[in-house]
Amino acid sequence: xxxxxxxxxxxxxxxxxxxxxxxxxxxxxxxxxxxxxxxxxxxxxxxxxxxxxxxxxxxxxxxxxxxxxxxxxxxxxxxxxxxxxxxxxxxxxxxxxxxxxxxxxxxxxxxxxxxxxxxxxxxxxxxxxxxxxxxxxxxxxxxxxxxxxxxxxxxxxxxxxxxxxxxxxxxxxxxxxxxxxxxxxxxxxxxxxxxxxxxxxxxxxxxxxxxxxxxxxxxxxxxxxxxxxxxxxxxxxxxxxxxxxxxxxxxxxxxxxxxxxxxxxxxxxxxxxxxxxxxxxxxxxxxxxxxxxxxxxxxxxxxxxxxxxxxxxxxxxxxxxxxxxxxxxxxxxxxxxxxxxxxxxxxxxxxxxxxxxxxxxxxxxxxxxxxxxxxxxxxxxxxxxxxxxxxxxxxxxxxxxxxxxxxxxxxxxxxxxxxxxxxxxxxxxxxxxxxxxxxxxxxxxxxxxxxxxxxxxxxxxxxxxxxxxxxxxxxxxxxxxxxxxxx
Length: 487
Fold this sequence. Notes:
This protein is an all-alpha fold. Helix content is 72%, strand content 2%.
């Protein structure tokens, strides 16, 4: 296998990297294919403002549990089959959305399409299999940053496709094209990659149904970290209730709440079942890992990716209201935040490879807090160029921080990488829902201050993170122990 990290190569591990970020790119094109087309969709089908807002909520509702589920499935069955199946199956609700004739059909297909937002998790595991620790941050950063650009590509390209076809159905052709991309990416991924390099073992969890931990304290921490995810889903129920956008009636909301509480109880019971053994006998030292590492990364991704999704949603309106720009001008200026992804996220991963995971996270999280504190000071008396520069500087720390988080995720426990990535990724969505809800309730300044405070809390949590070093141990089905370098 070629050991050079050559981005212009399309063989060996570099082919896996390129096909992985392309697959992720397509998932984000499909996931965000409705946002830039909501105007013509609403006009074509006569949607109200409340119904349009509901579609945006439904687009993220399923992604939180989906990332956790896809993480478990990836660890059990391998990235190649899971990514392929996800892309092929999610093309169906994509085509259904393109063919929808009323709001109910749009809402159902949009809800199901939230599942494709979990595709990111799959690539984290396969990149971790193919790249050594010294290059893992760079590879994961390129995968995340270039793939994440799919949302910006959808915003720029799909309206042009719709205009090119023209008429009331132009948006349908644009959405359908993204579905075809989904099918093509699924086929390319299946035929173009393997789960591991030749001769390497793909380690699977010893038990399925919940994440394994290796101490009693970690078990209680795992249960505690599940609660914010369920709380976010309950918050989404409230937003769909008569007190919110009114999609669901009071009875439906109560049923959803009862269902979520039942699922939480089953989840906690299943977590105990999988980890019951640790209450009776200690886990061998060489097989232990610290779930505390996962919890810290969850908190950091809450602040980084969570704030990115929220800020991208509100920046155009912020620039329009603060500087009196037109909608088109405000959108173009605000896009500077998202464009930083192409370099910032790979940059965060690269810096982690060079200077250490914990050190870089400390620096980037500090920069994130300072960045959002600065954005809270922006007013109409600022020069527009200075405001844009402040936004771009802040976005560098946000997106580089995302790259640094996932530079550390694959170095915790190889056989659980999908589940760890799934939980950490889900926390990004939890952050997005939390910050967007906060944005609807408080001033813009308070919104930015809240994100800065969450980053400061992340700094406190980093005190409990340990720099990955030495080796992690994995045991195959025949009982052979393999040591995998993590530093």
